[in-house]
Amino acid sequence: MPATSAPSRNPDLMQLYHMGGPWIGQTMYVAAELGLADHLGPEPRSVAELAALTGADEDVLYRFCRVLAAMGALHAHPGRRFSLTEAGGILRSDAPGGFRYGVMLQSGACFRAWTEVMHTVRTGRPAFDKVHGAAYYDYLEANPAENELFNRAMGVTSLAPAVAALERYDFSGIGRLVDVGGGVGTLLAAVLRMNPGMTGVVQDLATVTAEAPDHLAEQGVEGRVEVVSASFFDSVVPGADAYVLSRVLHNWSDEDCLRILGRVHEAMPPHARLIVVDSVVPDGGGLHPSMLADLFMMVILGGKERTEQDWRELLDAAGFRMTRAVQAENTGDTLVHALVEAVRR
């Protein structure tokens, strides 16, 4: 039987295009940017009120709310009034998972980069750089508001699968853990709470770690964490029992990943372990979210999502020996996260 990567039934590509076009995402962006969910609850509110609260044109806002209601985020009521649905609650600022901030992050400066997607296709370089005149992380450093949005989104949106993977990992024998590129320490704090005898180090750029002490104090682990401001391209804190790279390497090309892994390799004592938590593009046919995430990483950052074999080859090229894949599951509708353990070869 010949191999195929196509779904078993013929898709309606025209319907897929129209229903999944950029205007769907941008409609969500309007709701997120205006904070509509924060202004709505179970009781209906008029579009006139919402327009006054958000600084929007009343008629235009009504037309967007009408679509949001059709999408299930809002309930439509007579008299051009709307209330928030249970599903729409995900767009609230205080909703678990930080979806609102993720929508805002991907629909602003990142969305504009897609207008030059053919630059990526023809050159292999991120379109973001061409549109904004700077690489993504340089752009964040020069734009404090965008950098704050990035930190809020990354602090929550990408961590749930990683924490779930680490909950299945045996941390026996690990006294000191370094979270490389660990942001403000959210993931590290979760691991430390699961392992009361452990201490940790969170390492990231100074623009990120500035908020780490307050965040770690909120998590109740400030006395157990050292905060280090440094680029992982330059150095990694040495001498720990284990090093975590969670949702880091997919941001970078293979060449850059080898540089990062090289710094980790230099920092690791002979007994130490490397733990990589990242998405995995599943084998087999059918459209999967990780494939679309791969396009996003390529256009914005020049990074990539990788298959299990890609991860094995990358680690091998960096001087590591993969010892086990602790967790890898394919739910079919979400990014697949694997937790891969490796040691120095």
UniProtKB/TrEMBL annotation:
It comes from the Bacteria. It holds the Pfam family Dimerisation. Residues 114-321 form the O-methyltransferase C-terminal domain. One of its GO terms (molecular function) is methyltransferase activity. GO terms for biological process: methylation. SUPFAM superfamilies: S-adenosyl-L-methionine-dependent methyltransferases, Winged helix' DNA-binding domain. Keywords: Methyltransferase, S-adenosyl-L-methionine, Transferase. Residues 18-89 form the O-methyltransferase dimerisation domain. This is Methyltransferase.
